[in-house]
Design brief:
Layout lengths: L5 H16 L7 H20 L4 H18 L5 H25 L6 H28 L20 E7 L4 H12 L8 E7 L4 H10 L2 E3 L7 H10 L6 E4 L5 E2 L3 H5 L1 H5 L3 E5 L3 E2 L4 H6 L10 H13 L10 E4 H6 L10 H11 L3 E4 L5 E3 L5 H21 L10 H13 L3 H17 L8 H23 L7 H22 L19 E2 L1 H25 L6 H27 L1 E2 L9 E2 L3 E5 L5 E9 L3 E5 L11 E8 L2 E13 L2 E6 L4 H10 L4 H7 L8 H30 L15 H4 L4
Parallel strand pairs: 1-2, 1-4, 2-3, 6-9, 7-10
Antiparallel strand pairs: 4-8, 5-10, 6-8, 11-12, 13-15, 14-15, 14-17, 15-16, 16-19, 17-18, 18-19
Helix pairs in contact: 2-4, 3-4, 3-18, 4-5, 4-18, 5-12, 5-16, 5-17, 15-16, 15-19, 17-19, 17-20, 17-21, 19-21, 20-21, 21-24
Length: 742
């Protein structure tokens, strides 16, 4: 007889847990208090009981073995068990760290030792707060609207813009006007802070509202507030001008406002159909979850349980009366969106999250633009921390305070990350002992904390974040967000709103030396530290304790080098010559040839300007052939003039020819406005396994290691006036890029 499968065993376990949960004993207050006190006592004993080296090893091995066994089973109960084991291992490490490793004997040890301790305390706090946020995602589902459309409210759709190209804004306008809602109850407004005549002409030609204001005070927040004062819809839907809404957005989201009269804001995910700089430069698009997927895939859903969903500035629906009650969109900080949600929660209103992609937009094209965007977010969160700290003030529950606190504290990782990247160098360079303990005891307490947090986060986050990638993301940004966050925390009035450019091009491959400079410095420092460690190991007077201490610090330094080299690889910008990214999608299509022959086929991808088609066997369409292409959605269809610009085997590339505004609008509704496309692509990366992810990051690190020498040698030759190496095409290494001007 075969053994029961883990899923079947998990189902029986879940049923048993449900029976226990339904027992009347839980309604006894005395029993609940006794159970909580017993659990707390057991936890404290597990944390503070002193153990010798061998005993600590066996205790840790048993706990970690238990975690590896239970992680094979499904269910949220198992996730909570793994979180409990992780919290126990980390708390035990922290107690040992505070009571047994801080007896520093000199100033150097004191400075480096307490610097590392501060970074560890920060990391542990964020770990615990993250567990609270993500322990039980709410997984809210759509609620039906009233059957009679006459009961549906009026809605204003705001599309703020400042310096984005008209072609970017057009797609959002086309699909916003095509949302499934009564025409007399829907009004789309373009809010143009650039005050451009061509935008006004376009809006007039497609029948949407166009609003400007005499100044740009308070940037996007001021733009939205100015529009609030001049419109009157009962609800306001807000989309960044590059976020293209689906037809179903309003019908999917608005039902919750009927269900909950205190609901002020409902947020949906930000999904991107173009790769961000990490995905583009590392070739991980749709393979490794991007930096934002964890937040929109898990964190926001976890926040929703605690009524602490953040407004994210776009792809959201808000009740006008409640928004106006808090004074409109917040203008006190440069993260006006999260601050607005905080104000709504303080007044006792609810915020909600619906984890269904209902819009898709453009990601930042270059690393410098991406870093600039994150700097603004980090500075804004630091401003909120100072002027409207959620730990203080009225209106919030404890859980809401903790969710907002973690969101703010996350962006202070700059300094702790740099500490972790340099901490082992204190011993390798200066013989500074940041731990006053033996190397084996450090390993016995630190490794369980690291391993438990790794496997637990892999289980919790694995669909939306792969292990070790957060270290790459944070390392790339750490140097750049450290100073703005610290300055904003000290003086929250400093700094200004910066607009994130979208829809641009990267004309050449180049290495962004200006952005990579900090990583190169850390690379040199860690490489030198590793060499120092090897030289020290070769000394004849090395005893056993020094040997293990050196090995631990060298292993740590090697890991840091892998992460640093992966960060360097991100700075190798890959050219992007297509202004309109293509979206992979299998849609029904028909090609109509000049002779009237009709060929049914499927699309491989689409963009604003063309399609990639998959033809049937034995069909040959010559290059430059003028054709008609029809696209379908349910009972809808539209036909567009096109020309063949690529033909190879069964693959055909076509370019649309001189579409009028009506045809452009129909094309947008049949492609970008389809919610099924974004739902099928979002959160579909291969689920994380830590060892595979370590291999992925290690491979990227090797690429970065190679880039240091390839581009470094070219920079050396160009500096000497010799030009780039002949083995490389000149366009791969433009001189202006090598000198940080790319």
């Amino acid at each position: 007889m075969s053994a029961p499968s883990p899923s079947r065993s998990a189902s029986r376990l879940d049923r048993l847990v449900q029976q226990v949960a339904n027992s009347p004993v839980w309604h006894s207050r005395a029993f609940s208090v006794l159970l909580a006190l017993g659990a707390l006592l057991f936890f404290l004993l597990a944390v503070v009981t002193p153990l010798e080296l061998v005993e600590q090893f066996w205790f840790s091995a048993i706990c970690f073995g238990l975690a590896l066994i239970v992680r094979r089973y499904r269910g949220r109960l198992i996730t909570l068990v793994m979180m409990g084991l992780s919290v126990t291992a980390t708390s035990r490490y922290l107690y040992w760290r505070l009571t047994s490793t801080l007896g520093f004997e000199n100033t150097l040890d004191f400075v480096f030792g307490y610097g590392l301790l501060a970074a560890e305390l920060y990391a542990i706090m964020v770990l615990f707060l993250g567990y609270i946020q993500t322990a039980w995602p709410l997984e809210r589902k759509p609620v039906p609207l009233p059957a009679d459309p006459r009961d549906w409210p009026t809605i204003d759709v705001f599309i703020p813009t400042y310096n984005e190209p008209l072609q970017v804004v057009q797609q959002t306008v086309f699909t916003a006007t095509g949302m499934d809602w009564p025409r007399d109850k829907l009004k789309v407004w373009v809010l143009d802070d650039g005050r451009r005549p061509e935008f006004r002409e376009f809006c007039e030609s497609v029948g949407v509202g166009y609003l400007t204001r005499p100044d740009n005070q308070h940037a996007k927040a001021g733009n939205l507030n100015a529009a609030l004062a001049r419109t009157s819809g009962e609800f306001v839907a807000i989309f960044d001008c590059d976020h293209i809404p689906t037809r179903s957005f309003l019908q999917v989201t608005l039902g919750w406002f009927f269900r909950d009269p205190k609901l002020a804001m409902l947020q949906t995910p930000h999904v991107f159909f173009s790769p961000d700089p990490f995905e583009k430069n590392l070739a991980t698009f749709r393979v490794v979850p991007n930096e934002g997927e964890l937040f929109y895939g898990l964190v926001q859903d976890g926040n929703d349980l605690w009524n602490a969903t953040f407004f994210c500035g776009s792809c959201a629906l808000m009740r006008r009366s409640m928004l106006e009650e808090v004074g409109g969109v917040a203008t006190e900080t440069v993260t006006e969106d999260a601050h607005t949600a905080l104000k709504l929660n303080r007044l006792g209103y609810n915020t909600a999250y619906l984890a269904l992609p209902q819009a898709a937009g453009l990601a930042t094209e270059s690393l410098s633009g991406h870093v600039g965007q994150r700097i603004r977010w980090a500075r804004g969160m630091a401003q909120i921390c100072r002027i409207d700290n959620p730990l203080f003030g009225p209106g919030l529950s404890l859980a809401q305070r903790l969710c907002y606190l973690n969101a703010m504290m996350h962006f202070f990782y700059g300094l702790p990350r740099l500490v972790f990247l340099t901490a082992p160098l204190a011993y390798l360079f200066f013989d500074a002992h940041v731990f006053q303990s033996t190397a084996l005891m450090i390993a016995a307490y630190a490794l369980p904390h690291i391993l438990h947090s790794s496997v637990t986060n892999s289980r919790v986050q694995g669909q939306f974040r792969h292990s070790f990638w957060n270290e790459v993301y944070e390392t790339v940004l750490a140097w750049y967000i450290m100073r703005p966050t610290l300055i904003a925390f000290i003086n929250p009035r400093l700094g200004k709103f910066n607009v994130t450019a979208k829809g641009g091009l990267v004309n050449e491959n180049y290495f962004d030396w200006a952005m990579a400079r900090p990583y190169l410095v850390f690379f040199v420092l860690n490489a030198a530290g590793l060499i120092f460690g090897i030289l020290k190991l070769m000394q004849p007077e090395v005893d056993e304790d020094i040997f293990f201490t050196l090995v631990i610090n060298m292993a740590w330094t090697t890991y840091n080098l892998v992460i640093i080299c992966a960060s360097i690889a991100v700075a190798a910008e890959v050219r992007q010559i297509r202004a309109d990214p293509r979206v992979a999608a299998r849609l029904r299509a028909t090609v109509i040839l000049p002779n009237g022959r009709t060929i049914a086929c499927l699309t491989n991808d689409f963009s604003r300007h063309g399609l990639g088609l998959q033809l049937p066997l034995d069909v040959d369409i010559p290059l430059h052939e003028p054709i008609q292409v029809s696209l379908f959605r349910d009972t809808e269809a539209a036909t567009f003039p096109a020309k063949v610009v690529f033909s190879q085997g069964r693959r055909l590339g076509i370019l649309f020819q001189e579409l009028d505004l009506q045809q452009q609008s129909e094309l947008a509704r049949l492609t970008f406005a389809r919610a099924d496309i974004w739902a099928n692509q979002w959160g579909m990366a291969v689920r994380d396994t830590p060892l595979r992810s370590l291999h992925e990051v290690g491979t990227i690190g090797l690429r970065g290691f190679r880039l240091v020498f390839v581009y470094g040698y070219d920079l050396f030759r160009i500096t000497l006036g010799l030009g780039a190496t002949k083995a490389r095409k000149p366009k791969d290494v433009p001189p202006e890029a090598l000198h940080g001007k790319g």
